[in-house]
């Protein structure tokens, strides 16, 4: 159930339509009839489940359920309307629906009539607690409102019945045989006025209830097939209320409660004869009402109010100045009539209304008085005629009446003459009243404000008193404390003075420190800028020196090749010289033998043999000497070769090789493993080189032994008779052997030296390559670091913070470490190059091959005057390659002394980044 109430005092509204279906009656249930409706109160929707057509949906301003109580209908729909009547509006509530659908139940309801004869209070209670409908509840509501809101009021009730287009006053005395016919007159201003109807003045709701019951009992009813007590007349119950408020304003409120006759179709109603006529008339009235509604919705110019008395009476209600509501009552078991009623209500909902307040003018009030006097006169006449009043009284009364009439007429004329003045006064009073109301409102606001200010001031005053008390207490405390403070102030002031002096001194000191620090920072920045410049210069120098180093290494390698080439050439020369000498000796021997043979062949035969044997022995000895000279214990070629390899490899492994490995692996974590393996590597290398030298030496020894064996064989197979031939063959064989073995020795030496050289060169490339890569890596890191510092320096804030200072110092330390590393690496590189240049690339001068005694003798004997053949002497010799002047090679013994020991790079020197 909705509690929503509606206000009608605003702008344009539409006619409110409320649907109220009743439950299926017992009679209908016995006929197996059921409801065709579904009700959704929340959505204010009624659904008709049509048997023959599609389901229909209807929406209204309110929709009640089947079991809705009477008081809920009143509270929801009627109470707001009655409130508007009490404000001076006219309102009309229709009940429209099929016969037996509940119109009378809704409008009048059921209440205990018999109790009205007893006391008013219990009757009141009984009515309101019963199944009373809208009419009795509205009476109660109106009287309650009037008593509460207004200083003076009048209530008049008319109760009419429209039956067969004839109006009957239901309040007329039922004893009179022919009740007065009521007529409807139209005024000049087209207002319909009902003449002849009794207006029952009611001073209390009790009076009004009596009137209502009287009228209801008189209402004509007739039986139909549909409803045993069905009413086929329209009843119009009207309450007219005049109200006067405390300001003297008068208003007129009107409430029409219309219980229309059944709206059903005549054929379906089952009425016949007189009732058929009745039914036809009923339908004509309702059809006229429907047409009027349609015309009003369509804004037609001509509205056919005059076609029926019903529409004439209700013209005010329909034309829009009245608050109008229609309650459509529904019989849920009758689908066709229900649909018809729903559509009627739906159409009526489109009617627009614009209610207006009925303000009563003095003219209206005067007319009211005149009507009242006329009514009273009529009553008096009737009374006189009925009861037979004595003439004297009658005359007196008549004179009195005449006097009253005269006075009334005078008053009427005076009233009319003063009407304008009264209206003027009224307007003035209204203006003054409005002004006074505004002033009152202002005064009320001002008073409220002042009250609030006063309350606030009181509150503040209380707070102030409390604070004053607190302040007094505090003052006492303060006085005591002040006395204590005074005593300590003198000592404290001395301390404070001293403290201030100290602070000033510290401040001065701090200021000086800050100035000094600022200077330091400035100088540091300038130093830092210089350092960066220097580092950049060093970096460029390193690059240049790297380039020079590369060039130098390349040149040194070229020189090494050249030296080796020279060595081989000298070896060739030695070999050629040896061969030439041998040939010369042999040739001289042969020549000498030939001379001897020619001179005394026989005598000398023995001598020849001796010479031959001697020669062979000497040659054997010579080769044996040669063999002896190959012994490693003697100072010979092998010794030199052996010592060269041993020294070279040993130094390389102990100094350069290990250093370079360490440098290249400086960023790895397994340095210890590298150090542990180095002695092993070094021993392996030494053993391999020993093996190489020993193998070479063994091969040479083997070859020379074979040569000696050949001489032995030759000596054993000598034939005394064939000395000449043997000697020739022998010499040829010796010559051949010398050539063959000499070439083999030379090739062997050449191959071995070339292997050694290429091995040393590869090592150099590998090791120097690592070193150069390290240096380049360091340079790149340093450059990036410098770039980073420059960027930070340029973008940094001019104020140097502690963080940036520490960062700067850290970076400078890094640069220092890197510079040291670079210097260290560069030193290593330089030393390695120098050492390599001194020891490896420039080999020792080849030693002369030892000569045989025969050769020496022959040389001494034959070429006594000739100069000693000059072997390769590279001391102080300048080598010119491609026009470049290269330094002279250093002798091997001085070279080893010139190589400085390369310092080890300590682990702690590793940069911390
Ligand atoms: N909402 C309702 N709840 C319970 N009973 C109802 C309701 N409405 C109507 N009735 C009952 O239905 C019967 C017919 O109702 P009512 O006389 O009010 O119909 P009606 O429309 O006034 O008929 P008519 O047009 O002949 O006057 C009555 O007995 C009444 O008590």
Automatic annotation (TrEMBL):
Ranges for domain Kinesin motor: 14-351
Main location: cytoplasm
Localization: Cytoplasm, Cytoskeleton
Molecular function terms, GO-annotated: ATP binding; microtubule binding; plus-end-directed microtubule motor activity
Biased composition (Polar residues): 1-10
Coiled-coil ranges per UniProt: 366-449
Annotated stretches, region: Disordered: 1-32
Key words, A-Z: ATP-binding, Coiled coil, Cytoplasm, Cytoskeleton, Microtubule, Motor protein, Nucleotide-binding
Gene Ontology CC: mitotic spindle; spindle microtubule
Binding site residues for ATP: 97-104
InterPro entries: KIF11-like (IPR047149), Kinesin_motor_CS (IPR019821), Kinesin_motor_dom (IPR001752), Kinesin_motor_dom_sf (IPR036961), P-loop_NTPase (IPR027417)
Signal peptide: none
Gene Ontology terms: biological process: microtubule-based movement; mitotic spindle assembly; spindle elongation
Gene3D superfamilies, alphabetized: Kinesin motor domain (3.40.850.10)
Entry's family note: Belongs to the TRAFAC class myosin-kinesin ATPase superfamily. Kinesin family. KIN-5/BimC subfamily.
Protein name: Kinesin-like protein
């Amino acid at each position: 159930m909705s509690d929503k109430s509606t206000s009608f005092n605003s702008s344009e509204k539409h006619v409110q339509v409320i649907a109220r279906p009743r439950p299926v009656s017992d009679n209908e249930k016995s006929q197996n009839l059921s409801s065709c409706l579904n009700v959704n109160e929340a959505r204010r929707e009624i659904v008709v489940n049509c048997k023959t057509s599609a389901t229909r949906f209807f929406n209204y301003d309110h929709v009640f359920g089947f079991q809705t109580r009477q008081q809920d209908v009143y509270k929801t729909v009627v109470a707001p309307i009655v409130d508007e009547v009490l404000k001076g509006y006219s309102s009309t509530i229709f009940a429209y629906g099929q016969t037996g659908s509940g119109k009378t139940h809704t409008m009048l309801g059921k209440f205990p009539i018999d109790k009205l004869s007893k006391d008013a209070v219990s009757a009141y209670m009984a009515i309101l607690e019963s199944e009373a409908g809208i009419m009795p509840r509205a009476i109660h509501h109106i009287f309650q409102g009037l008593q509460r809101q207004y200083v003076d009021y009048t209530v008049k009730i008319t109760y009419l019945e429209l039956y067969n287009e004839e109006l009957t006053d239901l309040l007329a005395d039922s004893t009179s045989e022919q009740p007065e016919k009521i007529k409807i007159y139209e005024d000049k201003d087209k207002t319909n006025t009902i003449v002849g109807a009794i207006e029952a003045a009611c001073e209390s709701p009790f009076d009004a209830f009596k009137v209502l019951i009287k009228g209801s009992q008189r209402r004509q009813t007739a039986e139909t097939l549909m409803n045993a007590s069905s009413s086929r007349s329209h009843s119009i119950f009207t309450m007219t209320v005049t109200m006067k408020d405390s300001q003297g304003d008068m208003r007129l409120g009107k409430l029409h409660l219309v219980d229309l006759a059944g709206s059903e179709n005549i054929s379906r109603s089952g009425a016949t004869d007189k009732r058929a006529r009745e039914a036809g008339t009923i339908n004509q009235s309702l059809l006229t009402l429907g047409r009027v509604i349609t015309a009003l919705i369509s804004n037609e110019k001509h509205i056919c109010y005059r076609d029926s008395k019903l529409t004439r009476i209700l013209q005010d209600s329909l034309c829009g100045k009245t608050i109008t509501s229609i309650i459509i009552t529904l019989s849920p078991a009758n689908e066709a009539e229900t649909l018809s009623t729903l559509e009627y209500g739906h159409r009526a909902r489109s009617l627009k209304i614009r209610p207006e307040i009925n303000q009563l003018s003095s003219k209206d009030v005067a007319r009211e008085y005149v009507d009242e006097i006329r009514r009273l006169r009529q009553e008096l006449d009737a009374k006189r005629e009925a009861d037979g009043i004595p003439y004297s009284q009658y005359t007196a009364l008549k004179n009195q009446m005449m006097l009253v009439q005269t006075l009334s007429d005078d008053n009427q004329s005076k009233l009319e003459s003063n009407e304008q003045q009264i209206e003027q006064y009224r307007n003035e009073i209204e203006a003054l009243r409005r002004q006074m109301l505004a002033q009152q409102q202002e005064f009320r606001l001002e008073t409220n404000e002042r009250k609030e200010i006063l309350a606030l001031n009181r509150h503040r005053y209380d707070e102030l008193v409390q604070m004053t008390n607190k302040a007094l207490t505090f003052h006492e405390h303060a006085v005591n404390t002040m006395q204590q403070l005074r005593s300590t102030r003198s000592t404290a002031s001395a301390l404070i003075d001293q403290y201030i002096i100290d602070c000033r001194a510290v401040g001065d000191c701090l200021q000086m420190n800050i100035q000094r620090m600022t200077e330091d920072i400035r100088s540091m920045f300038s130093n830092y800028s210089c350092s960066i410049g220097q580092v950049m210069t060093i970096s460029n120098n390193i690059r240049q020196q790297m380039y020079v180093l590369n060039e130098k290494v390349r040149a040194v390698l070229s020189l090494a090749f050249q030296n080796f080439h020279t060595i081989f050439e000298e070896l060739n020369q030695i070999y050629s010289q040896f061969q030439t000498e041998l040939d010369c000796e042999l040739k001289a021997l042969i020549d000498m033998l030939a001379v001897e043979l020619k001179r005394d062949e026989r005598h000398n035969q023995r001598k020849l043999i001796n010479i031959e044997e001697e020669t062979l022995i000497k040659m054997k000895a010579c080769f044996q000497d040669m063999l002896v000279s190959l012994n490693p214990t003697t100072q010979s070629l092998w010794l030199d070769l052996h010592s060269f390899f041993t020294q070279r490899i040993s130094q390389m492994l102990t100094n350069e090789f290990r250093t370079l490995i360490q440098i290249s692996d400086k960023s790895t974590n397994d340095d210890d493993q590298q150090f542990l393996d180095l002695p092993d590597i070094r021993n392996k290398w030494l053993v391999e080189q020993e093996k190489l030298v020993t193998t070479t030496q063994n091969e040479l020894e083997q070859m020379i032994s074979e040569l000696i064996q050949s001489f032995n064989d030759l000596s054993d197979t000598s034939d005394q008779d064939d000395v000449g031939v043997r000697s020739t063959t022998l010499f040829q064989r010796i010559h051949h052997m010398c050539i063959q073995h000499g070439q083999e020795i030379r090739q062997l030496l050449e191959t071995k030296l070339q292997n050694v050289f290429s091995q040393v060169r590869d090592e150099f490339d590998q090791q120097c390559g690592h070193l150069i890569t390290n240096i380049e890596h360091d340079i790149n890191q340093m450059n990036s670091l410098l770039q980073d510092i420059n960027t930070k320096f340029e973008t940094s804030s001019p104020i140097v913070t502690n963080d940036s200072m520490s960062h700067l110092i850290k970076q400078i330390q890094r640069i220092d470490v890197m510079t040291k590393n670079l210097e260290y690496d560069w030193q290593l590189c330089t030393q390695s190059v120098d050492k390599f240049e001194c020891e490896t690339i420039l080999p020792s001068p080849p030693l002369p091959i030892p000569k045989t005694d025969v050769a020496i003798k022959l040389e001494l004997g034959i070429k006594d005057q000739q100069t000693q053949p000059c072997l390769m002497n590279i001391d102080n010799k300048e080598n010119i390659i491609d026009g470049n002047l290269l330094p002279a090679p250093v002798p091997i013994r001085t070279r080893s002394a010139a190589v400085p020991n390369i310092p080890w790079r300590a682990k702690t020197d590793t940069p911390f980044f």
